[in-house]
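Hello again, I could really use a second opinion on something today. I've dropped the whole record in just underneath, so have a look.
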Amino acid sequence: MKDLFDPGYAEVDHIIPYSRSFDDSNANKVLVLSEMNQNKRNNTPFEWFGHDEHRWGQFISYVKTLKVSKKKKDLLLKENLDSEQEETFKSRHLNDTRYMTRFIKAFVEDNLKFRDERNGEQHVFTVNGAYTSLMRKRWGFNKNREENDLHHAVDAVIIAVSRPFRKEVSCYFKHREESLPQLLKRTGDYFPEPWDGFIKELRARTLQDPDQLKLALESLDLSSYDRDFLEEVKPIFVSRMPKRSVKGQIHEETLRRSRGTTEKGYIKVVTKTRLENISFDKNGDFAMYGKESDPKTYQAIKQRYLENGRNAKKAFSTPLYKPAKDMSCAPIIRTVKIEDKANQVVQLKDEAVAANASIVRTEVFRHKDSGKFFLAPVYAADVFAKREPQKFIVANKPYENWLNITDDYQFLFNLFPNDLIKVKMKNPKKTKSNLGEPIVWQEGFFYYKRVHTGTAAIKLLIT
């Protein structure tokens, strides 16, 4: 086994050569000796040594004993692969054949009028995600969903060029399959681009700083970018659809018990919680309801948590028994009641309550005299009950101490998730990007996400 990690000893090979199938799935991959892979070149296993009946017979017997998928066995033992079958393979792995994709394709064909329509000519194509993923990796556009949403724009470009570019891709892989690695290194065999400078151009067009964008495009010195275009070009603007429909549940599924109010006026709620889901602090303490009356259970849970390196999942993967004089009769502790506080809840039967579901919209008011803005959250439960908001959020205060909505305030507008808003601050504000990079801003366009009912702060997404 140790030889597998020696450079040049083994390689991952496509059973049906990629240049002839466009199949990059695991079902079409096997681990082989590098020397054997070079001898196989651009052939299927049968084309390589199927003429040797004895060797091929041994190979069939070996494959049938493997604990692999039926698809992989069928590919390993495939005997005929003519040009027509190759095109079928390519089409299958180039096109996305999922039901939703086919439905959208048919919808576009039925409802979009094309400029030049000819009988039998296909205008709408669906591209398989595995194929575009290969293009993305080869061109160095690794998808980072946490950074921003520009990867959707990059996907659109790659999809647009991928199908007309398939012949060049096939030729590239065929050349690699038929050539020795040493020759490829000497000749500088690089993955082709749809046109010269494609990668640099696409990287430039995804820059979000206007000045950097113009400098990058000017440096490319492309005839298609004249002076007028360079003066007008702007960074890609990510569009989001506002969520204005009221759907989903009225309250969260977890049922809780109301236990009065805290000293500060918040609603005290108790939730039955599994041990692995308890929120511990750095010292191993947690908000167990009634711990004063059952300190031994509290200490047993805390000790087990600390003994396992503050890893709750590991700590409670094995049963924890309630402390008792006779441990042989001790019951297993599976859940405990955790105490928490809430601003607003949905009242159910008896003492049962549930936390509100998400806020569907936030109403924005302005005080007529001071000009200050105030926010009033509206939950799904409010919409279904046809209740108008009665109070404005006051930071770090319970609901009972929020400000009442009176005629002293003027309603301005509603904010829904993904609404585009312009924000202008009195002074520059420091924040961080999704990747933790520092950002200083004073005004700009943002997408509204939600309001925090505890702090009255709103969460924004950079466009």
In short: The first strand starts at residue 10 and ends at 14. Residues 347 and 353 are 5 Å apart (CA to CA).
